Give the backbone structure.
Amino acid sequence: MSLLEQRTKADWQALDSDHYIHPFTDHKDLGEKKSRIIVRAKGVYIYDVDDNEILDAMSGLWCVNAGYGRTELADAASDQLKELPYYNSFFQCANPPSIELAQMLKNITQAHLNRVFYTGSGSESIDTMIRIVRRYWEVMGQPKRTTIIARKNAYHGSTIAGVSLGGMSPMHSQGGPLLPGIEHIEQPYWFESDRSLSQADFGLKMAGLLEERILELGAENVAAFVGEPIQGAGGVIIPPDNYWPEIERICKHYGVLLVNDEVICGFGRLGEWFGSDHFKVKPDLITFAKGVTSGYLPLGGVMVGDKVADVLIEKGGEFNHGFTYSGHPASCAVAIKNIQILQNEKLVERVKNDIGPYMQKKWHALAEHPVVGETRMVGLMGAMELVSSKTSCERFDDKSTAGTVYRDFAVNNGLVMRAVGDTIVTSPPLIISHDEVDELIEKTWKCLDHTQKVMAS
Ligand SMILES: *Cc1c(COP(=O)(O)O)cnc(C)c1O
């Protein structure tokens, strides 16, 4: 008997409510509404315990790039678990999948990114990156360079380092002192600005804030600047095209390391292997997770560029850092197969030349709807802004009611999309078909109609 058959839906919900503390969840709220028990998935669809079919326009949490139900990925894990389920990479040991994957990652990333440090998640990758960056400056004989600059409303994970580096005020407001030596500048969120500047002028202005902050702090104290190429959890905030090149210029000028957090943008999401490829910048390090295994098993890592690796490895001696699951053989085996799928099925190219442009065109047509103030999308990562007035682009209220109305109606009508305040975001699996995009857009239009009706009443 499968686990599923052993209990009723009500049993699952009651046990869940009694014993399971969920991430980012108000449990009083969950206790009343009850959790939705997801039992299986295939392609772009997930199915709940009542067998409702729901189009997952979020790829889980931005991670199921290759889609659900890939038996090759399950087999890769199963085969590896039978051969060697676990062994560590400490004490001069390694395993074939972790080495093979390192070589594949080198091949799909930019030419100067030749080495990887493995972790178990995006948050651990961020922690690791901070330790590498600070260690680099120590070995370089500039130990005062410890400050790391990030952006407000950035998401870099949920460990104490991730929360500290991220710029999410609801997270900062809980749990006392954060990691010291972290600074935040404003995000390049054009729609939230007064929109008096052109996109290009706005891009330069927002990048210029980095230079101002470096000068305030003294470049001799600044270790690195870190940013998601496109902010994901913050609401798919797509910077103007000139933003990243200007950030890169400023980093170079002041000798500050540039780090891209590619946890969402990597592995084809933007129609290139990585977000830094899309924005044409050369980061000194990148952090990754999520799409590397399409979420089938946990894995993350930091790709370390030659400039940093040469110092860390050639001159730094032992680096006192690592995780039990660094280079986990089963996770690495799944990642190898996942990257092979992306390559063999040309999914990255498909996002760039076929399904990406197809969905973008349909997505932008949603801007016709009376409650939509802006639509934006790169590759298969997009957002739309819900507004009460199209001409002024004014929000409905400050309680994000419209976003919540939209999101709740969507999931009850066969569509998962996320609401970040009144910003609706989407990030479907890269294998989504043209028909499935049509279905996604049709459902989205219905959700917008419903939101308009509720907000007007
Ligand atoms: C999800 C995410 C993280 C954190 O990853 P976890 O695996 O949840 O720890 C870090 N950075 C970005 C950009 C993310 O989207």
